[in-house]
Amino acid sequence: MTMPAAVAGAISGLVATAPMTAAMLALDRALPGNDREDLPPEQITEGIAERAGIRDDLPEPATKGVTAIGHFGYGAAAGALFGVTATRLPLPRALAGVAYALAVWSVSYLGWVPAARLMPPAHQQPARRNAIMIASHVVWGASMGIALSALAPPMACNSRAGSCWFQPRRS
Questions:
Q1: I need a labelling partner for 117 at 20 to 30 A (CA). Which of 1, 21, 156, 158 fits?
Q2: Distances (CA, A) of 131 to 6, 18, 24, 50, 84
Q3: Total domain count for the chain?
Q4: Residue range 82-100: average pLDDT?
Q5: Cβ atoms of residues 98 and 24 within 8 Å
Q6: Residue 171 maps to a domain
Q7: Residue 37 is part of which domain span?
């Protein structure tokens, strides 16, 4: 049985979002109280809810739930792309995952998030906040690479069809 690369990547990205979130929360809790604020996934969710005109209608538990769904969904979507691109990087998958995660951080916090006016760009954020987010993305990338390696051994590609599938491990 074979698994499409995007599916294996999405599963890996989803799974890897759990240790990323744990790292993000632990590192944020280590900050002095006056340096703490809502973490970016919550800030992004609140910004989108504000734009949609529903921010005041969302109780705190609903905001937390929507934030988690959005964060894990984004991790899975970004993981799907990683699954497709992972074999094109001449690196071990955990290291490829870290490189990919740092690219996702850059594209997000220096690109689309500030462009959408959901948060200021990373260079306008406190250094400690950036350190937490970068470290969390490193955890996500390494975890995603490890998960992808466990889920999907080397790929077989059909260049004529432009598609790749992960081949099952043979005992």
A1: 21
A2: 29, 19, 10, 27, 28
A3: 1
A4: 89
A5: no
A6: no
A7: 3-166
